[in-house]
Write a structure and sequence with these properties.
54% of the residues lie in helices and 7% in strands. By secondary structure, it is an alpha+beta fold. Helix 1 links the parallel strand 1 and strand 2. It is globular.
Length: 206
């Protein structure tokens, strides 16, 4: 398999999942900062111009974070990265959809890429402020809805934790936001996992 990623982007969560599974895989850097994701050579792989993308062993490519994560977990059941019980799996997918479909684009894209929303350069500060307001509210919502112990789901560690991790990494790092207590403990527990350490080292993230 080959993961197309940008250092520190949401693709970091998929990188962690691949490290948890332990099967051989390659990585190819597609920097969203310098626009490599919009170059013709990458658009032939993923016309959506997004990371992550995953080329599977049969040569086909998967896109969209929740789908890649779900496929990796289901294709590698021995890794125990998704609950077996139907209702628990449903809750896992529910969290991933919220993190990837709301928290990421509505909060953190405003903070990290305000030009996507701003009318002009002078408007960017307002966009960033709104992003921080939204992101803070989303993090508080996750804190209030927390039903697990160390991990997001009561059933234990899962791909939903890997989705939350890239959000926490943005919040505590690039956005300079204070994580609520449960999320702060979760972020530390994630960073202590060998798979996370390997992924971050491989991407050059300190």
């Amino acid at each position: 398999m080959k993961l197309y990623y940008s250092p520190g982007a949401c693709s970091l969560g998929i990188h962690v999942i691949l490290e948890e599974i332990g099967r051989p895989f390659e990585t190819e850097l597609v920097s969203t900062r310098d626009g490599s994701n919009r170059k013709p050579e990458y658009l032939t792989i993923n016309p959506k111009a997004k990371v992550p993308a995953l080329r599977r062993d049969d040569g086909t490519v998967l896109t969209e974070w929740p789908v890649i994560a779900w496929w990796l977990a289901k294709a590698n059941p021995m890794s125990n990265l998704i609950p077996v019980e139907f209702e628990a799996e449903t809750r896992c997918l529910e969290w991933m959809d919220y993190l990837c479909g709301t928290v990421h684009p509505q909060g953190f894209t405003r903070i990290l890429r305000p030009s996507n929303f701003a009318r002009d350069a002078e408007d960017e500060a307002r966009i960033v402020a709104k992003g921080k307001e939204l992101a803070t509210g989303y993090l508080e919502t996750i804190e209030k809805m927390w039903k697990g112990g160390t991990w997001l789901l009561p059933t234990g560690y899962s791909i939903a934790d890997c989705a939350l991790f890239f959000i926490e990494n943005w919040a505590a790092g690039r956005a300079g936001l204070e994580l609520p207590p449960r999320l702060k403990a979760h972020f530390k527990a994630m960073k202590d996992r060998p798979a996370v350490e390997r992924a971050m080292k491989r991407e050059g993230i300190t």
